Amino acid sequence: MQRCAWCTDDIDYLHYHDEEWGVPSHDPAHLFEMLILEGFQAGLSWITILKKRENFRQALLGFDARQLAIADEDWLDEQMHNPTIIRNRLKLQATRTNARAWLALPDPVTYIWSFTDGAPLIHHYNNAADIPIISPQAEAMSHSLKKSGFKFVGPTICQSYLQAIGCLMDHTTDCHRYAVLAQAAVS
Hints:
Elements: H1 11-20, H2 28-41, H3 46-51, H4 53-59, H5 65-69, H6 73-80, H7 89-104, H8 108-113, E1 121-122, H9 136-147, H10 155-164, E2 168-169, H11 176-186
Parallel strand pairs: 1-2
Helix pairs in contact: 2-7, 2-10, 9-10
């Protein structure tokens, strides 16, 4: 079965690629979780984050934005000693900051999808080298998120985020998921 070139044979990667990556999500909890995880991924490989995803769910209060928004310094210090997650104080502080900014958005789902005019942008890339690292949508999202008080939301992170949640469908044309997701977008 042909998959995107970035997908290794690791079982977690296979599952993520085949079941989640590029599938349009309108679930606010999932959208928030992915935004936080993409921020933690900065400077690391995505497989590192995937391997720790369940640990992050436990440590980061189930990615419940309301709980994270009121997390105190004791919680932050506790997470800095948690060996099961990425222990980066700036990223943990950003999680709390981003939860507050997320809750301040009138409609986070509509906001996120506004960067692609409410529908997935289906690209037709023949190979991974054709896929841009940063798109105009990612640049616009990064600028807007930063203006709204979010942290760890640079254009590269936003590009990965938009791809992950299905706003940008960037499976390559030879990938088995391409036809399925491209067809679903026009149905």
